[in-house]
Amino acid sequence: MQRFVPAIFGPPKVESRPPLDWTGIIFTALLSAVVVLPLLVVGTWAFTEVWRYPNVVPQQFGLRFWNQTLTRPDVWGALTLSLQLSTVVTLLSAVICLPAAYAFARLDFPGRNILFFSFLAGHAFPKFGLLIAIAAIFLQLNLIGTFWGVVLIQLVGTLLFMIWIPVAAFQSVDRRMEEAARDVGAGPLRVFWSVTLPQAGPTIAAAVLLSFVGTFYETEGAWLIGAPGIRTMPVLMISFINNQMVIQYGAVLSVMLWVPSFIALMFARRVIGGGAFARGFGG
Amino acid sequence: METTGESRRPTGLLLVAIPVLLMAWLIIWPIFSAIGRTIWRPDAEGVPGFTLSSYVFFFSDQYSINNLLVTLWTTGMCALLLLVICLPIALYLRFSSGRMPAYVQALAIFPMFVPSIILAYAFIRVLGPNGMVDILLNAVGLPKIRTPYLTPWGPVIGLVWDNIPLTVLILLSGLGNVANHAIEAARDVGANRLQVFWHIVLPRISNSVLVAISFAVLGIFSSFTLPYLLGPASPEMMGPFMNRTFREVNDPLNAITQAVITFCFCIAFGLFYVRSVARNQGK
Fold this sequence. Notes:
The complex is a heterodimer of chains A (283) and B (283).
Chain A: H1 5-8, H2 22-46, E1 48-50, E2 60-61, H3 64-70, H4 73-106, H5 112-118, H6 127-140, H7 147-171, H8 175-183, H9 188-217, H10 220-226, H11 233-242, H12 247-273, H13 275-280
Antiparallel strand pairs in A: 1-2
Helix pairs in contact in A: 2-12, 3-12, 4-7, 4-9, 6-10, 7-9, 7-10, 8-9, 9-12
Chain B: H1 11-39, E1 40-42, E2 48-50, H2 53-60, H3 62-95, H4 100-109, H5 116-127, H6 132-139, H7 153-175, H8 180-188, H9 193-221, H10 225-230, H11 238-248, H12 252-282
Antiparallel strand pairs in B: 1-2
Helix pairs in contact in B: 1-12, 3-7, 3-9, 7-9, 8-9, 9-12, 11-12
């Protein structure tokens, strides 16, 4: 181990080798055990055919359960439904939120600040209590158990992200470049398309992606409003866990479902990494 | 927010109208409707009037009270554990440099990208009966653990795991406001680490600590998925309790009453959270 230490601690400095960062090593070890180990166990179960207690390593690896899981009609039904829901919700959210974000960032109108901060209201109340209150209203409107009921509930969940992150993106666009483009005769649309959008685009794309992935995994609204007619992927997972079916089904679904989340992680790093993200939560 | 030189025109209002109306219909209105429907409804003769009977029932029903108590206990325990775990991590990340803190930060933020449904599954495979921990303990000849699965500790562990990333990010963002020279000055006059933390760091991040706690409390108090899958059937937390009252007992009135009660318990945290975020954004 000793030999690898300098490599871990970055390029060797001229003066001396830095002292061992024991705090960091302890944190890394503990967090790895708590964060990475459980996910490794799930990953192992997904590729396991036989694993009897108390063996430390599975007796037999294989892909048999991938085949079994992927040929289940309820899995395909839930996957298709979840993808449809996420696509519809994300598109609707983009269509109504992005113009609003542009207006909040660039236009002046009566009540702008109040309306801007009013989107926090959804986060100022305990979420499941709010869902129950909404469900009581949907009950009268016969929206319980319908596709559009779930779309509405998930759409509301995306509003804050899809407005606040793009607002920050539009505000960070260099206004001087827009003015320069206008000075050389570009029209407003042309300026928006060639100057504003390329600068704000990546952050907006990250927001859209986050809302797609967030909707895909949204469990509570789909569970409360969608049942029994609408079975999304997370709802199906709940029934797999509750009914204690073949262990591997849950593991295979977890691994399969985690892939989109991982892609989101890669894309959204720039949004998450910035202090702006934590500030958005009031830090 | 910056304002443009343009005159105050209502174009902006049109652009933000749909998200604002959607939010008013599906967040603001359900809250008022929930309060209204529980305190102003028909009595036995069908004459509408003011009544608090559903609240009286809740607070005189031992089962409901037990559920409320276990919710309060879980929320308090999670908030405490989150502080004890996340404050050292955030302090370490703020005051050290090199590649090690980058690993620690990546690990601490990782749970943000693990959907809670996958977390629940992983929890059962690791800490459940004959799970990975039992396997490892058995391999080194130690007795099995008393599994936290389906006990009040199950939701606590799951919810803490789920909330580590945002708590660390919010605390870290608060620590960004602590100037290095303030700490160096205190060190120069002979303050030790604990004194520096207590007299210099803590007063400057107290607001962030409160924001982190508020955010965690709002999320945990009415959480559903993790308590539903990992917690005991009785007493259950408010989330599963409301879900069962609404869906299985088919009693919307009492479910809404429970929702309003969770609102009341969280109102102080919600207001504080909104105020902090608004103040931060206004900067």
